[in-house]
Amino acid sequence: MGTFRLHIDLQIDANETDALRISQDILNFCFDNHQARELLEKNNIKTVNYRLGHDDDRQKSNYFIKSPSGHVANKKCRIVVISDQNAVDTEEV
Asked: What are the domain boundaries of the chain?
């Protein structure tokens, strides 16, 4: 059997700017604290992938990654749990 993945879908009824802010606040609340890092490490979870999409998009857009010309990427963002520094880092994947 393959790997299980936890998918959580939160509907955010807001404009793009507010949706980005709310999403970042939620991510910070869930992952940017000592208890969250300990729980992730305890369960051998090394990365968390995420993106902010829009229901009207036909592709899997990520509004966290937007070019200067206004095009959004379809790459996910990733939180990397760094156990030896007891911290998290983010990157694009």
From this structure: 16-92
